[in-house]
Amino acid sequence: MTTVEENKKLIQEVLEAYPEKAAKKRSKHLDVYEEGNSDCGVKSNKKSVPGVMTTRGCAYAGAKGVVWGPVKDMVHLSHGPVGCGYYSWSGRRNYYVGTTGVDTFGTMQFTSDFQERDIVFGGDKKLAKLIDELEVLFPLSKGTTIESECPIGLIGDDIEAVARKKAKETGKPVVPVRCEGFRGVSQSLGHHIANDTVRDWVLPKADEYRQLPEGFESSPYDVNIIGDYNIGGDAWPSRRLLEAIGLRVICQFSGDGSFNETVMTPLAKLNLIHCYRSMNYICRHMEEKYGIPWLEYNFFGPTQIAKSLRKIAAQFDETIQEKAEQVIAEHQVEMDALIEKYRPRLEGKKVMMMVGGLRPRHVIPAFEDLGMNVIGTGYEFGHGDDYKRTADYVKEGTVIYDDVSGHEFEEFAKQLNPDLIAAGIKEKYVFQKMALPFRQMHSWDYSGPYHGYEGFAVFARDMDLAINSPTWNLVENPWAK
Amino acid sequence: MTENNGNNVNTPVAAEPGVIQDHFDLFQTDTYQDLFEYKRQFEGAHSKEEVARIAEWTKTWDYREKNFERKALTVNPAKACQPLGSLFVAAGFEGTLPYSHGSQGCVAYFRTHLTRNFKEPFQAVSSSMTEDAAVFGGLNNMVDGLANSYTLYKPKMIALCTTCMAEVIGDDLGAFIQTSKDRGSIPQDFPVPYAHTPSFVGSHITGYDNMLKGILDCLTKDKKQETTNGKYNFNLGFDPYIGNIRELKRILQLFEIDYTVLSDNADAFDSPNTGEFKMYNGLTNLEDAADSINAEGTFFFQKYTTPKTQNYIEKEWGQETFNFRPFGIRGTDEFLTKLSEITGKPVPQELVEERGRAVDAMTDSQAWIHGKRVALYGDPDHVFGLVNFLLELGAEPVHIVVTNSNPEFEQELKAVLDASPYGKDATIWGKKDLWHMRSLLFTEPVDLLIGNSYGKYLWRDTHTPLVRIGYPIFDRHHMHRYETLGYKGVLNLHNWIVNTILDELDRQTIIPAKTDISFDLIR
């Protein structure tokens, strides 16, 4: 049998454990990539099957945790009961520079801590009072976003009215984000909702809110970095590369971003988008409204970095293109040495991935730069356009799993025998108990950055230490024969 | 990434080609420091002087007063919501799959939070309810969810709790479970205990209580016998130290007491790596749990975590219950005295000797702890145990913040503080949060802070050395494996406290030709 046939058979076997109805639903989300196909053959962005262990989160997680949360100088209020804000408090490692609690608030948890009376009588008055209290205690904040938790949409609160009133009173943006956790099928809708609030509540007032840098003059090289959340500092090596080829980054949205940068965005000539999934909406809007084109790029691993730098430079004049070539050449020796060191230790190692956003495809070439093969990949909350893009990255026979369940992931791993699993914290210890090396691909396992040339060095080192750790050899005890 | 004011001795490292630099080195290099400085112009940032001025103001009494005036805003609370506790307690029962009925994101958060603390897999499922369920109710989700999780994960019991979504729309759990059974999702006799766990009532400890009561109520139905089974039940409450369960069992074995731990989740949160993933590691057998109704009595170590369960056991089971806090010397003494009384046996010599060693350790290092002013926070019973231990050492609790407090607890703790000469400066700050604590630490500084990992931000801002005791501990490894219970627990608590003080002293005296006069080899 070919790999494709074998893996298709494996999928059928894995599905046998489900009740019929669930098996039918799940079967549409699993497939094997066949060379020449323009997508991965799976359905996506559908409801998770109840009672099946999905790794997905909710709209609140997408809006607060991903899109708005990293905007460092605003207060992001978890509006509703205490839990959502508590569990997402400081969990994502979106680094920023600032004095926390004074001019930045990224690693703090602000909540309206709803009690039963708030559910019964509504929380709008409490919300209004709360924003007044924020003004007193955090006078340097640049505004507030209100991330609604499940009950808000169910009890009929009018947070938009409160937001309008308070924005007027405080002279600062107050952005109501209707990201109740029951909306949509995953965090993905939360990204979209948050993008829409930028469109509806922020950009229309951009000119009013914007503080231009001293002596600022528009230049043809002004770009925005969109959708890099600065996990472990990722956005900074990316920014450095763009600056090195002669571009001027006038905004990071939202990793290490500020509110002012958000309202700087319409001034750019090009939107450079890292995480297409979570931020394509606002890029499309800016294209339509301001005529700003957008371009996806991939800064994982030297092959893609070079490719992306050339692609970006091609949007500009020759000076930029020359500099891009220079930057690529400058790093070549160092990257060659790095690969020479790590490739022999990683050559031929098999990887299974499952992440969110863009990583299930974008990281593949970085593994390949190290001689590793990705034999399975899938998204927590991808859409059809993600799977289309993935087709350009994967090889014949790769198992594709959308919104993979705990059962499926474990069975695939048992049968496909990967050398490394690259997924999230909820999966990590399941596989480590199976003596399988694992790296977290959301938080970079507390390491990073992984973007850019410096990031690739860290990435290569981390993959090596995960796979080649001597601890895995200790798992089997000497008496277990 | 806030400026570090001296807690960190790392100096910036220059970038060198070929050297792999981690984030903590890389971003301190000139290249990135310059990048940050350049980026600032686009940020619309306040002037550094203004930031410094406001930062200073947040340390003042004026700020503290404004901070304590807030009524609507909560900042950095030391409490989570109900279902977290429900999942935590459910995991201690044999073959039990925790199931959360409502939105699916909640379960992702609970699993993540527990996993980050214990570095263990945590398996739980959700009904994955969306907009249509918000309108029509979650019945179909439950019917499918129970069928799928039962077939796929083959549990012996599904412990069902709710998210606030299901609570707000008013799903009828009992009826939904019965309907699911009637429609063949799960067998009629399959146990699905349930609990309503709205996150807008109480905190994670409330959810622990509700789920435990639900499980016991379900399993013990029609199990009451004429005579007792001669056993005692023990419940530790929302106690993140799995070493405590193991230590308790060792003590009980020394007394040769026949026991049932009601929710023994020690292995659920600390299972051996055998190369094979085992989904269920709860150690409380369902049969034992069912028979717990026939025990001689039930011991509760967290009075304010499990009031409903305790009341239920007294009223519904007609069983005697006891509250003990076997933490610190006296707390352990009282507990062992009781065990001696119910067994008619003297306290085993092994434990007597352990007591002697624990006290010996305390007398050895008490000079470093005596009179030290301490701030602490956490769940009510957790704080209660720690305060008692601090008072035994001659340390002085000053700021006691309990976000999920209640009046009975405050009264009981106050009596303890009033009875000790070391408790006279203490204030119990019920329902306050860690942003209140920040003001307290700035305006009335203390020598030591005891709390969970979130306390590291207070450490950074106020330079109060932090002893990590509590839940969650995300940024230090394996703390949960140790025991804090009993005399062995005393040694751990004591060790963590005294050595944090000594580490801090070394940090303060490390500057050559300046503070290193006191950089003593022997302390």
Describe this structure in words.
The complex is a heterodimer of chains A (481) and B (523). Chain A is α/β, with parallel strands linked by helices and 481 residues long. Helix content of chain A is 46%, strand content 12%. In chain A, the strands form three sheets. Chain A has a six-stranded mixed sheet with strand order 1-12-11-10-13-14, with helices on both faces. Chain A has a four-stranded parallel sheet with strand order 3-2-4-5, with helices on both faces. In chain A, helix 13 links the parallel strand 8 and strand 9. Chain A is globular, with a radius of gyration of 23 Å. The model of chain A has no long low-confidence stretch (mean pLDDT 98). With 523 residues, chain B is of the alpha/beta class. Chain B contains 21 helices and 13 strands. In chain B, the strands form three sheets. Chain B has a five-stranded parallel sheet, with helices on both faces. In chain B, strand 7, helix 14 and strand 8 form a beta-alpha-beta unit. The interface between A and B is large, with 124 and 109 residues. Strand 3 (110-111) of chain A pairs antiparallel with strand 1 of chain B, so a sheet runs across the interface.
List keywords for this structure.
heterodimer; A: 481 residues; alpha/beta; four-stranded parallel β-sheet; 21 helices; globular; B: 523 residues; five-stranded parallel β-sheet
Major sheet details of chain A: 6 strands, mixed
Q: Give me the side-by-side strand order of the main sheet of chain B.
A: 11-10-9-12-13
Low-confidence stretches of chain B: 1-15
Strand order of the largest sheet of chain A: 1-12-11-10-13-14
What is the CA-atom radius of gyration of chain B, in angstroms? 25 Å
Count of DSSP-assigned helices of chain B: 21
Largest sheet features of chain B: 5 strands, parallel
In terms of DSSP E residues, the strand content of chain A is 5-15%
Number of strands of chain B: 13
Strand content of chain B: 5-15%
Low-confidence stretches of chain A: none
What is the number of helices of chain A? 21
The percentage helix of chain B is 40-55%
* Structural class by SSE content of chain A: alpha/beta
Mean pLDDT of chain A: 98
Most extensive chain interface and residues per partner: A-B, 124 and 109 residues
Helix content of chain A: 40-55%
Q: Quick one: overall form of chain A?
A: globular
Structure summary, number of beta strands of chain A: 14
Oligomer designation: heterodimer
**Alpha-beta content class of chain B:** alpha/beta
